[in-house]
Model the fold of this input.
Amino acid sequence: MTATTPTVRELVLGIEARFRAAGLHYGHGTDNPRDEAVWLVFHLLGLPYDCPEAALEEPVPAAARERIEALAAERIASRRPLAYLLGEAWFAGLPFRVDERVLIPRSPFAELIREGFAPWLEPASIRRVLEIGTGSGCMAVATAHYLPQAEVVATDIDEGALALAEENARRHGVAGRVRLARADVYEGLDEPPFDLIISNPPYVPQASMETLPPEYRHEPAAALAAGTQGLDVVDRLLAGASRFLRPGGTLIVEVGEAQPFVEANYPRLPLTWLEFAHGGEGVFLIGREALAGAALHLPQGPSMIGTV
Done:
């Protein structure tokens, strides 16, 4: 080891210090500068996260170090999320290709999907799933991966997002069970009823959009913004779900920071708010019969674009 040939550990610590000093924002796969530096270095070196301790003391080849340093500098200068710089993000234990056509996967839905939606649903009973606003396809693909008996219909209004979702479905060998379709929420959808509808739609209220950190401004705004209360798409999901769910079917929707608006606007709707062992909130579940009985009459919000 020489002064000009840092070890893996030294490179990680050096980049961590630079990220910390730059005041970057995290939230697209990590929540602190150390994890962000580890992700960058390990990804480009092809190291598994459970590598032996001795691997951290290995010198980093010059060519790899130059590439790592260049991406670290770009992360700081551009404030682009690291997932976009690497072209990859992880969701539910699976890698997905991502770019600026879609949001970077980060939903607590990952925990639900890995458990086959248990204990809320019986995994073996889920045969048909509809995902609205598929974006990168991560939720649809992961659902097909963890529920091998299920057929998944994944929709989006954005053709670029659908193309990327198709690529990710092929990557994970589930393209035969993940059918992609262009639709605006339920508009343009002509399908038999589903056992389960899932969605991580746009839900950021306008006031929050105006104060987002720079990293989030690299993501497609239409996949984040959803009107004054963040409910423009959520209202439509609730209003139309009963028509596309079979008897006994279930709707699960992430609304994030818009949860207080949902609770205020739907005080008599029997929503179940889910808790997560690994963090996350703002995800509700409701059955078809409860939705149908509510007789919702809601205004139609603006078009929805890709999400997760």
The first helix runs from residue 8 to 22.
